[in-house]
Each structure stands twice: as C-alpha cells, then as structure tokens.
Amino acid sequence: MAEKLKNNQMKERSPGKILLAVLIPFIFLIVLAWTALTLTGVSVSKEIEKAAAHIPGLSMIASIDKTETAEGESDRMEASLANKEAEINQLKQEVSEKEALMEEKDRQILQLEADLEQTSQPSAENEEQEDAVKDLALSFREMDAEDAAPILQEMNQDQAVLVLKEITGKERGDILGAMESTAAADIAVRLMEE
Length: 194
Known about the structure:
Elements: H1 2-39, H2 44-53, H3 56-120, H4 124-142, H5 145-154, H6 157-165, H7 169-178, H8 181-193
Helix pairs in contact: 2-3, 4-6, 5-7, 6-8
C-alpha cells in the first residue's frame, strides 16, 4: 500500500513537474524573442496590439489603448507644435534685428560714400589756391635764383614747398642753392616727404 501511495503521489506531481518543465523554457524563449525583435527595431507591443485588434474579445481593449495612445500622442504633438512656434517667433525676431542692423550699415555706407565723394571733388577754394600757387610759381620761374631764394625763405614752409613743386628741377636746385643752408635743408626734406 505504501507503494501505491507513493505511485499516486508521483502521478500527482508528474503533471506539475511536466508543466514546469515546459512552461519555464517557453517563458524564456518568449523573453529572448521579445528582446531580439526589439533590438532589430521591431515594436513588439505595437505588433501585439495590431494582432489583438483582429481578435473579437481583445479588439475592444486594443481600441481603448489606441485611444489613450492617440490622446497622449496628440498632447505630445501639441507640445511639439508650441515649441516650434516659439522657435519660429524667436527666429523672426532675430531676422528683424538683423535686418535693422543691415539697414543701419547701409545708411552708414551711403554716408561714407557721400563723404568720400565730397572730399574727392575739389572745392572752389582748393581750385583757387592751386591757381594762386601756379601763378606764384610762374613768377618765381621768371626771377633770378638769388632774388627768389630770400622770398621763399621768409614764406611759410608749406607754401614754399607747394611753389617749388610747381617749377622745374633745375630752377628748384638753383633757388635752393641760393638759400641759407638750414632753410634749404628744411625745405628739401619737406619736398622729399611729399
């Protein structure tokens, strides 16, 4: 009888052991397959939801999940849209600031061009002064070097240089030779600088 009891207990345990022996490897295979599919880029949960949607009892649960997912995704999309709109507004502000800066730079360029044009055009005063220097230089050409030298020595050095620049090199040399050496040296240095 003890043997019968033992056999009965073994028979009772056998189906549980068999179930465990099959269930544990099956669960392990499911987890392994899930992990492998996830690593390859397949969304297993979405695929399960798609399959559940075709099963009559589960289709209702899957549609509820889809509604919740759609609402969550809608909220995420609205937040993303708000962020993008804020970014667009910021970029528009930056563009308008840059445009204002460009307009200011354009105004500065126009002002500088106008100033350059004004300075490059000889004024009437400059033309009159140049004519006066040329007339004076003509007068010094006609003078002897001994007569012209003391006059140029007494003149402002800037004016003397302008006059001497208008006469020939030989005449200039004669006049400088007739001057005192210090004054002639100063004027010669100024002539070389210009």
